[in-house]
Amino acid sequence: MAVSYMAPKSVLNERPRDGDADEDLGFKKPQRIINLEDDYRRRRLNCIISPERHDPFASGEKTLDPLVRTYADVMREEALKREKDETLKLIAKKMKKKKKVVALIFLSRSPIGTHFRRLTGLGCG
């Protein structure tokens, strides 16, 4: 004989008739996809895709204002940014290599390094 369980009638009669009951309990679903994004992905909306540039035809035959950014200026700035980043990476790489060399020199001059070289036969001395 199979036993079945039923909920009490008071619970069965208390069904929510619309989505308001879910909202009261804190189970409201986001209405838009953008609400699902986290801060990292939301940052893309705040980035400047293209800075304001000079329109060469708007001023007619007038001389350009030296404070106005042109396409060439923007491209030059981007090239400088890339070069700066590459230079900083290269400096960091050289500093890391220099630390290794200094550590090897220190190890080679220390008694432990001398003992290690004698045991392994590496290096001269």
Describe the structure in your own words.
- The protein has 125 residues and is mostly helical.
- It has one domain.
- The protein contains 5 helices and no strands.
- The longest helix has 39 residues.
- The radius of gyration is 35 Å and the shape is flat.
How do the strands and helices of this protein lay out in sequence?
Layout: H1 9-13, H2 20-25, H3 39-42, H4 71-109, H5 111-120
Helix pairs in contact: 4-5
Short structural summary:
Residues 1-25 are annotated as: Disordered. GO terms for molecular function: mRNA binding. This protein has five helices and no strands.
Ranges where pLDDT stays below 50 over 5 or more residues in a row are none
Individual helix count = 5
What overall geometry do the principal axes of the alpha carbons give?
Answer: flat
Q: Assembly type of the shown chains?
A: single chain
Percent helix range: 40-55%
Number of strands: 0
Overall tally of domains: 1
